Amino acid sequence: MSRRRSAPGLSADLRQEIAEGAARLMAEHGIQDFALAKRKAAERLGLRPSAGGLPSNAEIQAQLVQRQRIFEAGTHDERLVQLRTIAAEVMHALQPFRPKLVGPVLDGTATSNSAIEIHVFSDAPETVAGALENQGLHLRDRQRRYRFGGDVAQLIPGFELAVDGASLEVMVFSERASAHAPLSPVDGKPMRRASRSAVIAMLGAAT
After folding, report:
1. The model's pTM
2. Model confidence band, residue 49 (pLDDT cutoffs 50, 70, 90)
3. CATH fold for the domain made of 76-206
């Protein structure tokens, strides 16, 4: 049985190799979890995963962006336009709940496996479900854990659905949470959130 090397003290080249491998896993295999992607990438190199020695999520994100520029130059922008257009349409149906686009579709790093993530605000998730179902959309319950600072994490309810072949996640935050965005898994800062008007402006700039 082969022994795995310990990750702490990795060279810069090896850290980059892990980051590149993790980005490839996220792009090609639909892995959305940075921690899982970096662990798998390390294991493929015969390393014993250790959080202290592995690349940061920001390093993996940078490799993902670089990979998209190299391998998806002809299709990436078209995919973003398509996903943002779908997001704007769904956000129109959710206007009473102040919808905000977040995540890879907003920041431009969406892969072919990325879901459109929309945050809405209501103390009654069933009313959000009703607004979506009135559009003829079929929903599945979804929960996602978000960090809000330090070790504070909260399980947020929501819904999964599909529109025109794209996967969407509509997460329902409480009314009072509109002023406090959860932390990004990439850099640990509050997530950037964009209104429907901002998404439409982005689409206009892309044409």
Report:
1. 0.81
2. low
3. Beta Polymerase; domain 2 (3.30.460)
